[in-house]
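Hi everyone,

Forwarding the result from last night's run.
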Amino acid sequence: MTEKRIDNPEAKMINSEFQAQLEPTTRKSSSGEPRATPQVKQAQLRVISGSDEGLIKTIPPQGLLIGRSSYCNFVLNDPAVSAKHFRIVPLKTGFLIQDLESSNGTWFHRARMSQICVSRTEHFKVGRSILRLELLMSFDEDSLRSSPQAPRGSIQKRAGIR
């Protein structure tokens, strides 16, 4: 049985976001000055519904392998999840979620995805389970220090920069 691929504009946008994550970029304000870049400081994976509802795991720097196998470092007991279903790999400003050729796929916004770069909290479906990747954002302190846009005493004080 051949999987039907849908020409999905959102999937193309997601893929271009992923490609952008692989190449370092400098964000600039409308005036051309460098600005503070949000970076992911920490994230966790939470099972929202399914046989493992309530299960939570903080994503370590080396990432996570998710599936039914005891070899995985995040094991799901959902029978519709493959032994090694998908993995999550940390990037500088988000996470790569990559399906490992699972039988039932990894689904975002009703589209089956082979890989996606996530830079905000997102829900997705694997097997019969719905998961949420929760990202906690921070700002690059070097960008805050060098940013002429940041008025002295406002953002810098709150960020603990002197």
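Residues 9-22 form the longest helix (14 residues).

Cheers,
N.
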